[in-house]
Amino acid sequence: MRRLGCFGVIVALVLAASAFFALQEWSGRGPLATGSRFEVRDGATLAGTAVRLEKIGAIHSAERFKLYARLFGSEAPIKAGEYRFPAHVSAADILKLLQGGKTLQRFVTVPEGWPSILVKERLEAMPALTGNVAAPREGSVLPDSYSFERGDSRAAIVKRMQDAMTNYLAAAWARRKPGLAVRTPEEALVLASIVEKETGKPSERRLVAAVYSNRLKQGIKLQADPTTIYPITRGKPLGRRILRSELDAVNDYNTYAMTGLPRGPICNPGRASIDAVLDPADSRALYFVADGTGGHVFADTLDQHNRNVAKWRAYRAAHGI
Fold first, then answer.
1. Is 201 left (phi over 0), alpha (psi -120 to 50) or beta?
2. Which residues of 168-194 are buried (b: 16+ CB within 10 A; e: fewer)?
3. How many whole angstroms from its chain centre is CA 18?
């Protein structure tokens, strides 16, 4: 009897030690030396995934991982996707990640004022995306950062960008200021694209919008350089001064040769430029010219504007611009 009692104690101690070891291996510091990305494909099983986890050194043993998952984990299925494992992640946390579906998030950013051709090129340069995509319709994409997962299609990302623009433009139009120069959301988008290209200073957007709104109301040509450049480069930088022949060119975008808005947007404007067009500053200004500091000087009359232009030319000459 005494021998049986000792044997029972030994068995209990062995079981306790085994349980302690199992819990340590399950919840403790894992063997993965550095952070790593890991992809679970559609239809993957826990057994097959455990083998792959052992191969990359994320767990000690695939067999023990499966056993501990049954003993200590939940019965939820693992989810397909791409995951990021930190160094020395525990086996327990690996299972939680795979069952929770907290996949690695990637982002593509469209800056304010980008033309659609650059949006297309950015998406094409991201190897984690799939499928082909044409350049979106100009002005249809809302500049922002968009998350995606490996394997998402480029077309799906573009649709999300376009849906975001559609929704924002509709909401902004609903709260527009009365008495605007633009008559439709589409016209607001066109004018916002010009404002976006004309100034990068947030404090100037509503003033620039006021200048072009005043010109539209008075039937004065907009004479916006970015609209002249657009047919030449499709929105990319020109890299030189505009030629006289380009200012005289007759087309649907050159606002030096036509009255009113161009036929469509010349870039994808951001929220702030859309808001500026739908609530322009209370100003009678009809002109503006660069002031040499990255901003502009505004004028109500041509005489004031000509004096400002003379100052700008003197500044250019003095600074070798």
1. beta
2. bbeebbeebeeebbbeebebbbbbbbb
3. 51
Q: Minimal CA–CA distance to 149: which of 262, 39, 283?
A: 39
Read off the tokens for 100. Answer: 């929770």
Percent of the chain with pLDDT over 70: 92
Closest among 271, 251, 238 to 113, alpha carbons compared: 271
Would you state the structure tokens that stand for residue 126, as one six-digit string?
């991201």
Confidence of residue 287 (pLDDT cuts 50, 70, 90): very high
**Cα distance between residue 2 and residue 271, in whole Å:** 83
pTM of the model: 0.76
Q: Which amino acid is at 230?
A: Y
Check if the beta carbon of residue 154 is closer than 8 Å to that of residue 121: no
Whether 98 contacts 49, CB under 8 Å: yes
